[in-house]
Hints:
Elements: E1 2-6, H1 13-18, E2 20-27, E3 30-37, E4 40-46, H2 51-65, E5 69-78, E6 88-96, E7 119-120, H3 123-136, E8 142-149, H4 157-167, E9 171-173, H5 176-186, E10 189-198, H6 204-229
Parallel strand pairs: 1-4, 1-5, 5-10, 6-8, 8-9
Antiparallel strand pairs: 2-3, 3-4, 5-9, 6-7, 6-10
Helix pairs in contact: 2-5, 3-6
Amino acid sequence: xxxxxxxxxxxxxxxxxxxxxxxxxxxxxxxxxxxxxxxxxxxxxxxxxxxxxxxxxxxxxxxxxxxxxxxxxxxxxxxxxxxxxxxxxxxxxxxxxxxxxxxxxxxxxxxxxxxxxxxxxxxxxxxxxxxxxxxxxxxxxxxxxxxxxxxxxxxxxxxxxxxxxxxxxxxxxxxxxxxxxxxxxxxxxxxxxxxxxxxxxxxxxxxxxxxxxxxxxxxxxxxxxxxxxxxxxxxxx
Length: 237
């Protein structure tokens, strides 16, 4: 089973439309829609915004649906000048940027007593997704790099520069690292797919509504093709 998580309904509604043999289960206030896309068993769910919602959603997918792979699709703010609105970032790993226990000697972003600083995501999934982007989304650029997550909508240049300098992130959003952490703890393959909707600076609020729709379209197209392409090893735990 492949789990597809989007924080907002707009990020998953098109996927639910193309699903076949749909059945909905409501757990913890979330609608988990089971069915198939291109013959692959999938569960699509809107987690809600923020790390706690995303974590709860991922653990339910692991416990109740037995997913072997989680794909988190959505939008993000760019942290690099060369990553433009509409472009796609594929996660190499993910860091919780608002985790701060420096007072106990940990670096910013380190979850205390975890054996990793950045939560890894699946190299195989990323490779397949990159190939799809390069062949089929030729009007945009695709980047591979670190995704930063925190319960903050980054909309000022000073915060953006701090995140770039401290963590070397490619984009910032509010769910991916939490999903990657839960996937890591459960031994589940994961990939964070982010289409850029704003530049995560003083122009963020101005750009966001205008470019959100196109960014989501790119994410949905990539996610659909990724489901079609991956083999059975990615949906069996």
